[in-house]
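Recall from the previous lesson that a structure prediction takes nothing but the amino acid sequence as input. Here we apply that procedure to Guanylate cyclase domain-containing protein from Pilimelia anulata. The sequence below is the only information supplied.
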Amino acid sequence: MPARVAAPSGQVTFVFTDIEGSTRLARVLGDRYQALLTAHRRVLRAHLTVHGVELFTEGDSFFLAFAGAREAIDGCLAAQRALYRCDWPAGARPRVRMGLHTGYAVPTAGEYASPEVHRAARVASAAHGGQVLCSAATAREAGALPADVEVRDLGLHRLRGFDGRTRLLQLTCPGVDRDFPRPRTSGVVRHNLPAPVTPFVGRERERADLRALLQAHRLVTVVGAPGVGKTRLAVRVAAGQTERFADGVWYVDLAGLAPAAVPAAVAAGLGVRLETGRGLPPRMAEITTAHDVLLVLDTCEVAPDVLAQVATQLLAGCGDTRLLVIGRQPLGVPGECVWRTPPMGFQPGPGGEPSDALTLLRRRAEAARGGRAVERAELPVLQEVAAGLEGLPLALELAAAQLRCVPVADLPARLDELVGAAGPEPVEPAAGGAAAGRMTSLAESVGWSYRRLPGRAARLLRALSVFAGPVPAEAIRWVIQEDPLEPLATLVDVSLVEAVPDPAGVRYQLLRPVRAYAARRLAGAGEEAAARGRHARWVARELALQHVAEDGRPATWALSAIDPLRGEIDDALAWTVAAGDPWQALRLVRALDAWWIERGATARARAWLCRLYGRLGGPDPLTDATPPGQGPLLVELFLLHSRLAAAAADAPAAAVFAGRARRLARSLDDPGLCLLVDAWAPVEATEDGYRDVLRRAAALRMAGDALPAVHGLGTLLWQRGAWSELVDLLVGARPVEASRPAVRGRRTIDAALGLTALARDDLVSAHHHLSGALRAQVAFGFELAACNTIAGVAVRCAATGDGLTAARLFGAADANRAARSAVADVAAPFFAQREERARALGGPAFDAAYAQGATWSLAEAAEVALAIPAPSPAEGRRCRTPNAVARR
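The prediction returns the following tokens.
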């Protein structure tokens, strides 16, 4: 220090600076480093020595003292701005870190011998290159700072060699960097959180939600079903809070403890020793006044009542003591915020991104196989497993562990084993053992909670196992034949039942491991037959209600309303086909009618029917010796079976079952049934044969039942190009279809009129009819019909020269038809011809657009198709020849 400059005395602000990575810079620049170092010193001296005293300089380091904290801050920020503005060699900008601290110091012979100097040096060493850090003491001494100076509180930090913690603040201004990693402070971490054995995966949204709750509430209780990953998630979030709580984050696992030992365990987490069996002393609440602490209490279901008392006492103290409680049920104390842990997401993201559940399963699978990567062909199987296990982390971990000895392809067949649906009943461990501790299987964990349920709640849990998915309380009431709300609330509280928000209210469901356990207990209690029989009747009732509007009048049948019941339908059929009333099962199959075809489920429906015929002695004996009162049902079923076979391109089976339906209808001497059979499958599938059916229908005043004959005759007219006659037929049948609630949502007549208009190059009429048909088909869930209509819209686009939109819609229609196992129909050659014509004109661009459309869902394709404007009258009158399209 020059002798003529006096070092400040009293409250002194010390500043330390150096260049981050100076050794690397010296190595990179070589002889040029000296010039950079000189320029860096020149900039710092120009701004820091205006009000500061340069005490020491060595290499890239400066040590200065200021009489005023405000002047020190101003000088440091000005120096940083100047350093950022300088023109440095490429890749060699010196990143200078600066640290400031203010304290009492008196120089002796121009030097300071004060611990405040060392504290300032530690503050500087905590900074990153380009960053200015100061202690809270400096900020207080400086007072109000200019409006463009931002002060960011970085929290309390331990500085090497100093007791306690120092609050560090970051100073920034325009023209300098603002974002840096956390300060480089002492590595001493005040927590005892369990170290994860495996890397944490996903759960970004859940972690953010839980962090926000911890910020807003002093008591947050994380609850959830067995195996849902409560502890892993909560501990992960707590690990990110260690710098926030000055006195640490402390984890207490209550697993295996008797209720009397809980207070002592909690006190130990706060560093207080109590004798086991004694409650918290009155001074326990006072202890918390000196604690800025987060206490994580795990496995709290072992003694919820005791823990509720402990939590109340702890929260009564002062300070920022906070509790993160992990268990299966809330504590039920004032101020508690309850957060229910969801399973991991198992559906792919909107852009096809892998779900958290799939990512977890893939990573654990690779670890189980010694690091061997999962192959692309194995990913769909793992996705099936992740969805089948409903994203439950414990189940996914167990599934991955099996890959040590079984191939990926075998996992889907082992799902029941993984969730405990197969195998012996877990045994209640002895008191004080694992019953109150860590469970080694999902079934054991669920069983522990089940055995502690009151009688009504246990009975309800067993009965709920008959439901496949979320259902409203009214459905539960219908099946159990009593008010379920009180025991249902108990099951939700202990996390055995999930309450799922729904626009229509709340729905309730069991996760797969809970359902598997409850189903075993249902069978063991001798209640299965009655419960599943009532469930099947409830499904039949729900299907029947789809045909009735709120005002009691017939409603347009919406297949989309059946889709949410798919799981319930499968389970009801599985039970009734195997062990229930076969006639009840047959009525269920018949009630679904066109849904089987529109959803590409013809093979499944035919399999159910064949099994049921077998239980009843076979289709031929049923035809020849029909049980009393079941004749009309069997006629309709045989006819449905024929249609299912035809939809699967199995013409021989279609003919056989149509013949059985006809024979049985004639034996019943029922003209209406005979007409229905002949409308679908006339003895002679000719124009005259269909016209004969239509004449009979008119005489019987059963035009609605004869609509299939209209479609059959229309097919023949289409094939011979009798367009005018076909239009007359369809226009006449249009009001008949509109009067039939079961079929009017499909708008088959409008779709046929649209295709006929396309064949006649009447694009205006085609657009009108196809758009109307597609809107109805999408609204009412006639998916396969919508695929054909979208293909018709593609033809209409190609005809007006919009080849790329046509290509996308052709791709979407073809892909969605294939996904629904559709076979070629009468319009297939027409679509194929127009598609190939457009492809020839479009070349590679057509193929690329077609591939894009093939990735669209049916809803996406329909949205595009319905957004296409109607053609102008001029366009509608012109027939677009290939040459005209090419020129366009």
